[in-house]
Amino acid sequence: MSGNDSFDFDLITLGAGSGGVAASRRAATLGARVAIVEGSRVGGTCVIRGCVPKKLMMYAAQLGDAINEARGYGWAVEAARFDMAPWAAQKAAETRRLEGVYRQNLAGSGVKVIDGWGRLDGPNTVVVGEQRLTARHVLIATGARPVRDSIEGIGDCATSDEVLDLEALPDEVAVIGAGYIGVEFASILARLGAKVHLFYRDRQPLRGFDEDLRTRAAQSLEAAGVVLHAGQAPQRVQRQDSGFELHMAGGLTHRFPFVLNATGRRPHTEGLGLETVGLTVDKRGAVPVNERFETPAAGIHAIGDVTNRLNLTPAAIAEGRAWAESLFGPTPRTLDLGRVATAVFTLPPLGTIGPTEAQALKDGHALKVFEADFRPMKQTFIGGAERSYMKLLVDADTDRVLAVHMLGADAPEIVQSLAVALTCGATKAQFDRTLAVHPTSAEEFVLMREPTRVLPAAARSGAA
Ligand code: NDP
Fold first, then answer.
1. pLDDT in tens, 247-272
2. Atom of ligand 1 nearest to the CA of 181
3. Which tens digits make up the pLDDT trace of 104-128?
4. How far is the C-alpha of 23 from the C-alpha of 34, rounded, in Å?
5. Which of 46, 119, 155, 438 has a CA-to-CA distance to 262 between 20 and 30 Å?
6. Atom number, ligand 1, closest to the C-alpha of residue 313
C-alpha cells in the first residue's frame, strides 16, 4: 500500500479495543502507516472491562463449586470463604499485563498509539488534545457503552464496568435485565455468595436464544439460588441513603443495597465529531455502514459494536481484519457472519451455534430434533443435581446439521469445536460416522440415534 505523503497517516483508528487493534495491526502489516487513538485503556471492553475480567470472575465462582465437589471426591476441605479483595488485585494486575501485551503488539506491528480522546474535525482530520492529525482513511472502532437511561433512575446503578471493579461482594444484589450480562453476573455473583434477584420483562431469561436453553438456563439460575422475577422489570429506580428502591407496576417496591443495570449497551459515538463529516447515527444510535464497512462519509469507515450488528468480540476482530485486508491488501474479501457460535458464561455455561428451533421452522426447514438431557458422570458420583442438555437441529430434507445448542459443563469449548463441522456443512450422517471420545459429555453429540421430535416447517405448514 503506498502512502499519500500529504497525509500524516494512511489510517487513523479511533478506539483500541479488539476490533480497532485487529484492524490497525493488519493494516500496518500490509504496509500502511497507522495510528490508533485511545482515550481510556488499550484493550477496550473485552480485555479491560468485559469478556476477560468477567471470565476471571467466573473462574472464581467455579472454584467455589469445585471446593464443594472436592468433598464428594474424598478431599477433606475446611470451610471456604470467598474474599473479593485479593481477586480484585489479581484481576487488576492481569488486565495491566494484558494491556502491556496489546501495546507491545501494536508497537511490534508498527502502529503508533496516541493516548487521548480523538474526534473528527472535518474530512481526513482527527484532533486529539492539541494534536491535529490527518489520514487518508479513518476507522471508527469505538465500541459500545452500557445504556444508562433505559429506566427512570437506573443511571445511578452499577453497570458491568463497576461490578468488575468491586473490591467487596455485596450481600444482596438486584440484577435488572436478563441478556448475556444479566444472567452471567446473576449466576456468578450467586455462586460467590451474594443473594441475587433477577428482574426481566419476558417470561424467560435470554430472549433470542433457543427456548429449551432458556428454560434450562432459568432452572439452573434457580438451582444456584437466584430469585427469578419473570415478567417483572421496575418502572423506576430510586437511589436512597444506602441502596436503591425498585418501583414495580402496581405500586410494589423492593429495596436492595446494590443494583446492577444490565439493560443493554449502546454504540459509543458521543464526542466523536461525526457532524463535522456530515455523518448521522441511525435510530439505534449506530454508525451506519455498508457491507464494505464504509459509512456515507468519504474516507470514514466503522467496525464492531459501534455499528451495532453482531456485538461480539470475535465478530469485531474478523470485521477489522477483513476490512484492513480489503483496503490495504491485494484482494478485497467479504465476511460471512451468518452462523456464529456464541457462549453465555453462566455456571453451568451455555454454547450455541445456528438458529433456534423456532427460527429454523420459520425459515422453512422441516426438522429432526435430537436431544440428550443427563447428569454428567462427575455429578452422579457425588449426588449432584447439575445436568447437561444437548440439542441438534437437523434439516429433515437434506440431513444437514443446522444448529447445536448446549447448556452444561464445557458447553462453550464443545460448541467451538462443533462450529467447525457446521461451517463445513456437516450432515447428521457424518456426525453418526464420527467415533466417540469416551468417557466425555461431548460424545453425546455423535451418539444421538433417534430424533425426539420430527417437525414440519412452519412456513410450509402455514403455522406461525
Ligand atoms: P442484551 O441486549 O443481551 O440484554 C439486555 C437485557 O436488558 C434484556 O434482558 C432486555 O430485555 C433488558 N432490557 C432492555 N431494556 C429494558 C428496559 N427498558 N426495561 C427492562 N429491561 C430492559 O444486553 P447485555 O447488556 O446483556 O449485553 C450487551 C451485548 O454485549 C450483547 O449484545 C452481547 O452480544 C455482548 N456480550 C456478550 C457476551 C458473551 O459473548 N458471553 C457477554 C456479555 C455481553 P428484553 O429481552 O425484554 O428486551
1. 999 999 999 999 999 999 999 999 99
2. 26
3. 999 999 999 999 999 999 999 999 9
4. 10
5. 119
6. 40
- Residue 357, pLDDT above cutoff 80: yes
Residue 1 has pLDDT above 90, yes or no: no
pLDDT of residue 87: 98
* Domain covering 154-263 in this structure, CATH number: 3.50.50.60
Phi, psi of 140 (to 5 degrees): -90, 115
CA of 211 to the centre of ligand 1 (A): 17
CA of 124 to the centre of ligand 1 (A): 35
Whether residue 453 contacts residue 393, with contact meaning beta carbons closer than 8 Å, is answered with no
Q: Is 9-146+266-328 in CATH node 2.40.50.100?
A: no
CA neighbours within 13 Å on the CB side: how many for 103? Answer: 13
Average pLDDT over every residue of 194-212:
98
DSSP element (H, E) containing 23: helix 18-29
Residue boundaries of the structural domains of the chain: 9-146+266-328, 154-263, 348-461
- Compute, in angstroms, the gap from residue 179 CA to the centroid of ligand 1: 4
Interval 164-177: pLDDT, tens = 999 999 999 999 99
Torsion on CA atoms 28, 98, 60, 256, rounded to nearest 10: -90
Per-residue pLDDT of 374-406, as tens digits, reads 999 999 999 999 999 999 999 999 999 999 999
Rama region for 364: left / alpha / beta (φ>0; ψ in -120 to 50; rest): left
Domains 9-146+266-328 and 154-263 share a fold: yes
Please tell me the CATH superfamily of domain 348-461, with its number.
FAD/NAD-linked reductase, C-terminal dimerisation domain (3.30.390.30)
Determine whether the shortest distance from the Cβ of 415 to ligand 1 is under 6 A.
no
Model pTM score = 0.96
Give catalytic residues, as residue numbers.
438
Atom of ligand 1 nearest to the CA of 183: 26
